[in-house]
Write a structure and sequence with these properties.
Chains A, B: InterPro entries: Cbl_synth_CobH/CbiC (IPR003722), CobH/CbiC_sf (IPR036588). The structure is a homodimer of 213-residue chains. With 213 residues, chain A is an alpha/beta fold. Chain A has one domain (51-205): Cobalamin biosynthesis CobH/CbiC, precorrin-8X methylmutase (Rossmann fold, 3-Layer(aba) Sandwich). Chain A contains nine helices and six strands. Chain A has helices at residues 8-22, 33-43, 58-67, 77-81, 103-110, 114-120, 137-148, 167-176, 193-205; strands at residues 52-54, 72-74, 94-96, 130-133, 156-159, 183-186. The first copy, chain A, has a six-stranded mixed β-sheet with strand order 1-6-5-4-2-3, with helices on both faces. In chain A, helix 3 packs across helix 9 (193-205). The first copy, chain A, is globular. The relative contact order of chain A is 0.19. Chains A and B meet through helix 1, helix 2, helix 4, helix 6 and helix 7 of A and helix 1, helix 2, helix 4, helix 6 and helix 7 of B.
Chain lengths: 213, 213
């Protein structure tokens, strides 16, 4: 069998050297570079750098929220599973309501998906939270709908729903930002839970230290 | 705010219509089409259809293993979190050893990553299992190394590690297949836990029923 690199520090160094060599990061403000670097690392695609959009204060707001112990609200279990707990010294709660017992009935009642109904259960946690959406466009649409209706604003919305129906549209709505929220999003169809978790991890500690693989 | 599609069945129908309209699925054998369809759906990228490789008996071996209750071995928690348990009537165990207490010490001992060391803890579960790798190239390399050294073969290896160091190489090694394993893999840097979970879900039940978002 072919030889392969086994030292986590060497893998880390080579990975990030590749990102720096191939990606165009000049247009990113300084504090966003670790985030885009982690996002690229999570999906293996250099070219997503060209589709990332964000509000100017997103990193600062997200980092401060995490450091002060804000809740992290995720649209699915996979996003929660990718958040590295040792990066969160304040012991932030990671909350996923998608599989709570009342969700299917609530989805029927509001005429929307289970993912959207799960957003309605975020309740008081929403105020000042870090929201990470890595699966369902309807969760992101529902969140924006609720903020428009007067729900409290999270500290930052990390918008990475994925797919062919509503993903590009919900992220365009987030990025148009008539509600004045802090946000990060990847335009278009691409996204996913690994990217959403990577964004949370980047807001917490910047780039990885080579212990992840 | 712009209107959006809220009915899960309609979202499902439109998503899969898009995949069928845009993807080139002619080269896929019949029983692999639900798997590639789910993989495309999981990552929002039609073009991954052109990079999927598989052994002829992969679907059959994987499906039968899942239906008969085989263990599902994953390289990280995110892959485990994406496996939809209601698709598994045999109540298969989903096993992730990455965060077991002995892993860091074992990694040092074998001079490899934690992800590789975790593979060494799969032990007796490996025989006839469904292996789903969605993060670490070193986990896939280590598995192949162990099989070469005489470890029992899993029923099927779903190889979707991601990234810039070893991902393409480990999947090329898997696909060259001197060990005669059943496998599915995505050539190149792209991969990830959502794709790996989607492949497991496809082996269990084919395409989704629209309840997923």
């Amino acid at each position: 069998m072919r030889p392969y690199l086994k030292d986590p520090q060497a893998i880390y160094a080579e990975s990030f050297q590749t990102v720096r060599a191939e990606a165009r990061l000049e247009r990113f403000q300084e504090d966003m570079r670790p985030l885009i670097t982690r996002v690229i690392h999570a999906c293996g695609m250099i070219e997503v750098a060209d589709r990332l959009v964000w509000s100017e204060g997103a990193y600062q707001a997200g980092h401060e929220a995490l450091m002060s112990g804000a809740s992290i609200l995720c649209d699915c279990e996979m996003v929660g599973a990718g958040i590295i707990r040792r990066y969160l010294p304040a012991g932030n709660q990671v909350i996923v309501t998608l599989n709570e017992a009342g969700v299917p009935a609530l989805a029927k009642e509001i005429g929307n998906t289970r993912s959207a109904a799960a957003v309605d259960l975020w309740g008081a946690h929403l105020d000042g939270a870090v929201v990470a959406i890595g699966n369902a466009p309807t969760a992101l649409f529902r969140l924006l709908e609720r903020i428009e209706a007067g729900a409290p604003k999270p500290a930052v919305i990390l918008g990475f729903p994925v797919g062919f129906v509503g993903a590009a549209e919900s992220k365009a709505e987030l990025a148009a930002n008539p509600r004045g929220c802090e946000f990060v999003a990847l335009r278009g169809r691409r996204g996913g839970s690994a990217i959403a978790s990577a964004a949370v991890n980047a807001l917490a500690v910047g780039t990885p230290e080579g212990q992840d693989k």
